[in-house]
Queue: 2 jobs
Job 1
Amino acid sequence: MSDVFVPYGGLHLAVVAVCAVLIATIAFVGRRLHGSTAEPHVRKALAAFALCFWIAYNVWWNWGGIDLFISLPLQPCDLAGLVAPLTLLSQRRWLRATLYFWAFAFTVQAFIQPTLTAGPGLLTFWAFWTAHVLVMACAAYDVTVLGFRPGWGDFNRAVVVSVVYLLLILPVNGWLGSNYGFVGNPPPGRKIPPLVEAFGPWPERVAVMAGLAFLGFLLLLAPWLWTARQRQTAARRP
């Protein structure tokens, strides 16, 4: 097997298709068991596996020593990997809101424009896709099985969490010279994803990315607002 992964090729398409099937299968099983005594066990098993994987992945990633530039679990997808199982276990509203908006706005980008370079011949390849599948699977489970329906309050919660993350990660990036959240200003020689670089120089690109994230959250909220309004309209009809 190849040790190199090249985005937007046949392998990329095949991997995304397999990941989509896995996510849909988990949601389908949960839906079929919804209302039964078995469903909570499936949910807890998914959460436990996601939590154990998150811990094992971060221990393995840093086993040979911590590179503060890339090794800390401070990317949004890293944090979402912890939020995801906690959401299924606790069902706290702010966790559900954060998981929904972060998964479908941020984590999905890993499938569209992965920063991965390791091919299937390396463990990094499998760990990368597993981590992102688990986040998306938990988010899809919360929506399709547990019935999470975001509203303006959830939008506000996700925005607050995102702003707090941004305000905390900016000084961390400045201190370490890192690029967590892709909002840092790394030193020359450190690679920046092409799309991030296309948003312009730092710090202007931070404002652009924040604006796009806000717009993305609105787009993710819009279908649920429309659905709620349609139901209210139907309920008022004689």
Job 2
Amino acid sequence: MISVFLNYVDRANLSVGATDIRRELFLNDYQLGKLLSAFFWTYALCQLLGAAGWLVDRFHVGLVYATGFFLWSGATAITGVAHGFATILVLRLILGIGESVSYPVYSRILASNYPEHHRGFANALIDAGSKLGPAFGTLLGGLMMAQIGWRAFFLALGFGSFLWLAPWLAWMPRGAAAAGHTQQGGPGILAILRHRPAWCSFFGLFCSNYFWYFLITWLPPYLEMERGFPKTKMALFGSLAFLAISVSSAVSGWVSDQWIAGGGTPTRVRKTFAGLGLTLSTIILPVAVVRDENLAMALLMLACLSFGLYTSNLFAITQTLAGPSAAGKWTSLQNGVGNLAGVAAPWLTGFMVQETRHFYWAFVVAAAIALAGAALFVLGIREVKQVEFESPREHLIHRRDAERAEKDKRGRIKKSSVRAE
């Protein structure tokens, strides 16, 4: 939870300092959108190509994570002394490479060590950390940047994060559940891709991530640029929005586990939270058109509370579907597809703001895509239970046997027809 907290402070810090960086480096909105999305290019690609999942499943999960953490914290620190668009772009790409192993690591640890009726709360705590990170980063970062500038904040955050490595190396997971598997261990990527729930979870995460990354990258600039909030006021309301998701996620994760422990099926419980949460998140749309500042902020908080209902159960669904042997690879592929939204949301939002000079259509697109995500989780995934994997050889044998059976069936029907005539 602490590591994902730091992960998301690093991930969101550029948006907090966006207006200052744009002014100092003479960037337009389109260039700013490219910087905000650059992290996700490598973050998504490393997972989509299976590199992150392969590392997590092949080597010791704790050491893989320590290496990734060191890489992304260093990139954050060096950003504080960068003086050009291209340099910051490269550092954001390195940040994405380092952070790409994080969620495959989380899923493998939780799927290996936690039963179904504890995964909701365990995942919710990690998700709460991912929302507390932007909340803390937006509040403290906004206040610090207003006093000492964005560069000092990046340096303090990057070098300060290295302190986490000592307790992690001392207390990280050990034993067989943390050690690397052989190359033959667990189902392969093709075995995962043959299952419909995998594709639904991939694109469902893309839809929800579009909504989330719209918030994490453009909410602070929106509050400053369109609402006219000063930096300190933006920091307050921006952090409250992310804090609302965090609190909602933790409470919802605990409630979902209690429901399952009391006899509720994972299918009913997990899909209820996922579908209801994403559907109610569309309450964010009126924020773009309501003029009253207090009402707009109340609607924003309600939308964020609703989004927390969904996020608490997202990776609990993935870990149940994949099982311990496939959790790393499945999560890597899912995060790879899902975090393409991190490329799309900042870039597309920047383009729409650049062309229209306001945020209305950006809010419309975010709400519509969240609704599509609800449909994928509720209608696309029939049951939340571990899928049955086959090796490529077993799949070919079963396919051959099925083709033979179908051929024999057609032959019997043809003979029966001849006899009847």
